UniProtKB/TrEMBL annotation:
Keywords: Golgi apparatus, Membrane, Protein transport, Transmembrane, Transmembrane helix, Transport. The chain crosses the membrane at residues 225-244. PROSITE patterns: T_SNARE. The lineage of its organism: Eukaryota, Viridiplantae, Streptophyta, Embryophyta, Tracheophyta. This is t-SNARE coiled-coil homology domain-containing protein. It is found in: Golgi apparatus, trans-Golgi network membrane. GO terms for biological process: Golgi vesicle transport; protein transport. Gene3D superfamilies: 1.20.5.110, 1.20.58.90. SUPFAM superfamilies: SNARE fusion complex, t-snare proteins.
């Protein structure tokens, strides 16, 4: 899964944007000299934002703990887990420092831009450290994307091989089905031919029986006796020819 699709990085970018806004508002709060209503209201808003961001960072930290139990299941390695832990730790420190400054009512000196910027970076770890962390994040992301791309290509290759095996199996089953169909068609034809022959034989047998009945009906008793005698003699002759010759 690329960093653009990883839920951790999606939430991380939102949280980082909230931290950037918090730091910008904190800078505006420290520039307000008087302890008036505006400064108090802004301090309350900043404290509320600190609580919200700390909760979001804690939730991200919990997801890291869950992923660390089975990194292979989530497609990440120990280097990626450590990088995520460093980011959540840095985010918690940034928000914690802002919260401490707000609670204690500490005011930063604004007499010199250079001095103020140095103190502000030390307190909040603003632009320089943030840019360095983001640069490291992009570098680590390149390695992660590369390894993830290789894993996706391997999975696609395995799926292609499985599809090829499945296609070959389907072709074999199709060939067997065609063979069975041809065999059944041939057997159906044989059965039809046998049925036609049986019908023809039955018709001829019925015709012979009718002819014999007609001959027997027309013949007299003497004629019938002579016919029976003739058939008996014919049977004896055939019997002798078959068994004694």
């Amino acid at each position: 899964m690329s960093s653009a699709q990883d839920p951790f990085y999606i939430v991380k970018e939102e949280v980082q944007g909230s931290i950037d806004k918090l730091q910008s508002s904190f800078y505006r709060w420290e520039r307000i000299l008087s302890d008036g209503v505006e400064r108090g209201q802004l301090a309350k808003e900043l404290l509320s934002n600190c609580e919200s961001i700390q909760w979001q960072v804690d939730e991200l930290d919990k997801t890291i703990t869950v992923a660390a139990r089975d990194p292979a299941l989530y497609g990440i390695n120990e280097l990626e887990l450590e990088k995520r832990r460093r980011w959540t730790s840095a985010a918690q420190t940034q928000v914690g420092d802002v919260k401490k400054a707000l609670v204690s009512g500490k005011e930063l000196s604004i007499s010199g831009p250079t001095n103020a910027n140095g103190m502000r970076r030390e307190l909040l770890r603003l632009p320089d450290s943030h840019q360095t962390d983001r640069s490291n994040h992009y570098h680590d992301n390149d390695d992660f994307i590369s390894s993830e791309s290789d894993r996706q290509l391997l999975l696609m290759k395995q799926q292609d091989e499985e599809l090829d095996l499945l296609s070959a199996s389907v072709e074999r089953i199709g060939g067997i089905g065609l063979t069975i169909h041809d065999e059944l068609s041939a057997q159906d034809k044989i059965i039809d031919d046998l049925g036609s022959e049986m019908d023809s034989t039955s018709n001829r047998l019925d015709f012979v029986q009718k002819k014999v009945a007609m001959v027997m009906k027309k013949a007299s008793a003497k004629g019938q006796f002579m016919m029976i005698l003739f058939l008996l003699v014919l049977f004896i002759i055939l019997f002798v020819l078959v068994f004694f010759t």
